[in-house]
Design goal:
Low-confidence stretches: 1-22, 24-37
Largest sheet: 9 strands, mixed
Helix content: 10-25%
Number of helices: 8
Radius of gyration: 42 Å
Oligomer: single chain
Distance between the termini: 112 Å
Mean pLDDT: 86
Strand content: 35-45%
Number of strands: 44
Length: 731
């Protein structure tokens, strides 16, 4: 505020130069009143994405951390083209997908493994270690004997491919990029560098060979060091005091951990020399001035928030000015971070007490870092340094905080809340393949094959569809897409009914594979327009009412039966038949790839499928097959002849407009009338109109061949015969 005021006044009086002078004075006033910001340690990165820049240092990670890494090798995007259709009267559909292969360096020291992986903030790899999209990942932990990656060696040549020994990295091969807008996503990795608690020893041993620094960093689950070791030690020292003793055969850090208890110093030695401290007492006690910016704020990576930066403050009265913020590149819980910053603040306050102590005895056990007690002085003290003089050994001691158990408990810490991406295992695929009657579009010569793929889980990412022509080989078809079809099973057997009437008596209960899916009701007008068509077993029905029963179970009522020429399947339903809602969600598949073999099947393979999911094709051959004639009529004439009539139906005519005769949709009108079993008739006729007259002589011959036989009629289409219709029975 003072900066703005003095700037305005200076500009008013002295123009631009006066404004600059005013700003300088204002900043000095603001600093005196508010205090300037003070940060210790490198500023925490807000989980920066994966980069690829020359000259960037690769950090060392300890414990468990979330890091971005650096891309060290990559290929160009690979385009995959898939075409389907393109047959007679069917447009060709071409789909494009892209994959990429690349390597990401994670740490400049060996690690144990990789945990979760985030891509653009979403989980690419969960705690189960399975990628949530298609592709392959290989992990190289960085040991000195690791081999070159085979993909990189193949692309670059074996003589030019490094093994990057001592460097931990991962290689992605053919990673599907459809979920990331066809680009390499911003990746962050949960690196597991060490098992168990984090210690200072591996941090220091990376630069110093002969060192004893087995100091446990209590509360710290992970730590990252990007610069020199001295910077890491300077950053950790306020929270984990680590006085160094280089007087022995090896460097020892935090010597007090080697003690069973504090050592008692003897009485101080008196010195009468001019300039010696303490005079006749032999010691001098003083208190250092309080820091204007004490360490009271800690920024860290919060474990409960997926390693996002968090902040905790030491409890107590807020002092004027800006507190010192410690930027600690470490992973902690909120409670541990609160305890750590509280312990750091208490340590900074108590260690202001210093004593200069003179001893006449040379004790090799007394060295920097040793904990001691003093005669006549309360508390526990740590030796900061010592100097051997003619008048004795002079020790510099600092007061240690009392036992933390005696201090009041700090208030509970709160990490805050985030909305983490759900780490759900890929659910299995549910598949139902079927052929549908011709709907009138196109020529109707090719089978109309569809695959309805679904899953119980919302995190299903689709499946790849294949055709099995009956020989066990898999021919690629197309992806199913992520839209889940409404599929399930019929819990009870649907009772038989007349396909020519509205079935208000029968009902069926279906259990949907996706419990969150819903079924809607339809009015009579909407039913007449073709709404709510479903496949149950081998019968196509339409339902007017859908009653929810809970847990994905629905009762279907007010049914239209035997739709699309499936009257033959009205009877013979059993419990457990598959249910598929015939809406826009099932995907069309290329009949030319599937072939015409009756044993052909459709296969789906998704990320959550341990084995490929196989489905036979229901209603096989129904597309080119004419619909069975209806309304049989038999009349005996006066001369003993039998007149047979029926009504034809047109293939592809789902709707019947009033007053308009549906087109035949066949090359010619032809029928096959048979006597006896339809599969092996004793006599047959081929009329070209929906009528046939049998003379008394013919009837007598038929009765001789097979008494009490039946007469059936089939409509002959361009590609197949319809199902038989019973016209009459001779008694």
């Amino acid at each position: 505020m003072a900066t703005l005021v003095f700037n305005a006044l200076g500009t008013l009086v002295g123009g631009p130069i006066g404004g600059a002078i005013g700003s300088l004075l204002g900043r000095q006033v603001d600093a005196a009143i508010l205090g300037g910001g003070n940060r210790q340690g490198p500023r925490l990165k807000e989980l920066t994405p994966t980069t690829s820049s020359y000259g960037m240092a690769l950090p060392r990670h300890f414990g468990r951390m979330r890091v971005a890494g650096s891309i060290i090798w990559a290929t160009d995007l690979v385009e995959h083209v898939a075409s389907e259709g393109g047959g007679k009267s069917r447009p060709a559909v071409t789909t494009y997908s892209y994959t990429a292969s690349f390597a990401v360096a994670l740490a400049s020291r060996p690690i144990v493994g990789i945990g979760r992986i985030w891509a653009d903030g979403n989980l690419l790899r969960g705690a189960d270690g399975v990628l949530k999209t298609s592709g392959t990942m290989r992990i190289y932990v960085g040991h000195g004997d690791q081999d070159p990656d085979p993909l990189i060696a193949l692309a670059e040549g074996a003589d030019r491919c490094p093994a990057w020994r001592g460097l931990a990295y991962v290689v992605f091969e053919d990673l599907e990029l459809g979920d990331f807008f066809n680009r390499i996503p911003a990746l962050t990795f949960e690196v597991i560098a060490d098992e168990g608690a984090v210690s200072l020893q591996p941090i220091v041993a990376a630069a110093i060979d002969d060192v004893d620094a087995d100091v446990p960093l209590d509360g710290i689950a992970g730590f990252t060091s990007e610069g020199p070791i001295a910077e890491a030690l300077q950053l950790l020292d306020p929270m984990f005091p680590m006085s160094a003793d280089a007087g022995g055969l090896r460097l020892t850090i935090a010597r007090e951990r080697l003690q069973d208890g504090a050592l008692a110093l003897p009485e101080p030695a008196v010195s009468a020399a001019d300039g010696d401290f303490g005079g006749g007492a032999g010691f001098a006690r003083r208190r250092l001035p309080r820091s204007e910016q004490p360490p009271e704020v800690l920024r860290y990576y919060d474990l409960a928030r997926d390693y996002l930066p968090g902040l905790q403050r030491a409890p107590g009265r807020t002092r004027p000015g800006q507190p010192q913020t410690i930027e600690l590149p470490a992973a902690l819980t909120a409670a541990d971070a609160r305890a750590l910053v509280e312990r750091t603040a208490r340590h900074a306050e108590w260690t202001r007490e210093r004593i200069a102590w003179r001893s006449a005895e040379l004790d090799t056990a007394i060295a920097p870092g040793t904990l001691v007690t003093l005669p006549g002085q309360a508390g526990l003290w740590r030796v900061c340094d010592w100097e051997w003089r003619a008048g004795g050994v002079e020790l510099t001691l600092q007061r240690l905080p009392p036992d933390a158990s005696a201090a009041p408990l700090p208030p509970p810490a709160d990490a805050g809340r985030i909305n983490p991406p759900a780490d759900l295992a890929a659910p299995p695929t549910v598949l139902a393949a079927f052929e549908l009657p011709w709907d009138g579009s196109g020529s109707g010569d090719a089978p109309a094959l569809f695959a309805a793929a679904s899953s119980p889980g919302s995190n299903w990412h689709g499946a790849a569809l294949f055709a099995d022509q009956g020989d066990g080989g898999l021919l690629p078809l197309r992806p199913s897409g992520r839209t889940r079809s409404v599929t399930g099973i019929a819990e009870d057997a649907l009772a038989a009914a007349n396909p020519l009437l509205f079935d208000r008596a029968a009902s069926v209960t279906v259990a949907l594979a996706d419990a969150s899916a819903e079924l809607a009701e339809a009015s009579g007008r909407r039913l007449s327009a073709g709404a709510n068509r479903a496949l149950i077993g081998g019968e196509i029905v339409q339902f007017g009412r859908a009653v929810p029963l809970g847990d994905g179970r629905w009762r279907l009522e007010c049914l239209l039966r035997g739709r699309g020429g499936t009257e033959a399947a009205v009877a013979g339903h059993v419990a457990g038949e598959r249910f598929v809602l015939l809406d826009a969600r099932p995907v069309a598949i290329d009949a030319a790839v599937v072939g015409s073999t009756q044993g052909a099947a459709i296969v789906a393979a998704g990320l959550g499928d341990e084995e490929p999911v196989v489905s036979d094709i229901a209603l096989r051959g129904i597309t080119p097959r004419p619909l069975s004639p209806v309304h049989p009529r038999a009349a005996w004439l006066a001369d003993g002849s039998l007149e047979l009539r029926w009504t034809r139906r047109a293939r592809g005519a789902w709707l019947w407009p009033d007053g308009v005769d549906a087109p035949l949709n066949e090359q010619s009108e032809a029928y096959q009338v048979t006597y006896g079993p339809p599969a092996a008739p004793l006599a047959a006729w081929e009329p070209d109109e929906p009528a046939l007259l049998l003379s008394p002589a013919t009837l007598g011959l038929l009765a001789t061949l097979l008494p009490a036989g039946e007469i059936h009629v089939r409509q002959r289409g361009s590609h197949a015969l319809s199902e038989p219709l019973l016209l009459a029975a001779l008694s």
